[in-house]
Amino acid sequence: MDALATSSPAIPPPATLVLVPQPDAQNPAAVYLAALAPTGRRTMGQALQVVVEVLGGGDVRTFPWASLRYEHAQAVRRVLIERYAPATANKVLSALRGVAREAWRLGLIDAQTHARIRDVPGVRGSRLPAGREVPIRELAKLFRACAEAGASGVRDAAAMALLYGAGLRRSEAVALEPGAARAAEHGLCHRRARWLAYRRDLRAAVAKRGPCRAALPCS
Q1: Assign residue 34 a region: left if phi > 0, alpha if psi is -120 to 50, beta otherwise?
Q2: Nearest by Cα to 68 from 102, 32, 36
Q3: pTM
Q4: Can you point out the beta strands (E) in the chain?
Q5: d(Cα 130, Cα 134) in Å, to the nearest integer?
Q6: Predicted confidence (pLDDT) per residue in 28-82, tens digit
Q7: Domains of the chain in sequence order
């Protein structure tokens, strides 16, 4: 009896610890993307993948977003400034802030951490529009070639007049309808006027600053 009373029950060995992926309901990136429209989901998913690659690589859904801190967001911003245009950099930062907001709502980070990440500033700057300004001499050659091409040349000349005179993109030019001719009197040339104003301001800034060694796209 004494032996039975003093004997202790056998303790089973501890179970093996198995790490399982975090369910989507508690994944701030998944929650953030699920709230977006399908097109925005794809775009912001690519933006978050940029964040993951900058911070060490991996997958968006398995990345430890709960460990995200202010210094990580600043590091991402610094890399974005070096690699991407301002608009693209700000899109990636917006996605990062969105995930941080969902992490705070899910209780994965505290309010102070969320506020610090949200306080990371955007990227300022601008880029020259794509393409180049066609010189008048080159444009005249194109119109002379159209004049020699017969009926199809008339069509091509009209297309060039729209593209050059109004500053339209190709997709905008082919989408024009006959009724859009009246709109040309009121604002079809707005895009070209804006582009020319941009070049004029850039030339004035260069003239004020003086010559520099770097080549400028306004020469």
Answers
A1: alpha
A2: 102
A3: 0.53
A4: none
A5: 13
A6: 999 999 999 888 899 999 999 999 999 988 889 889 999 999 999 999 999 999 9
A7: 24-118 (1.10.150), 128-176 (no CATH)
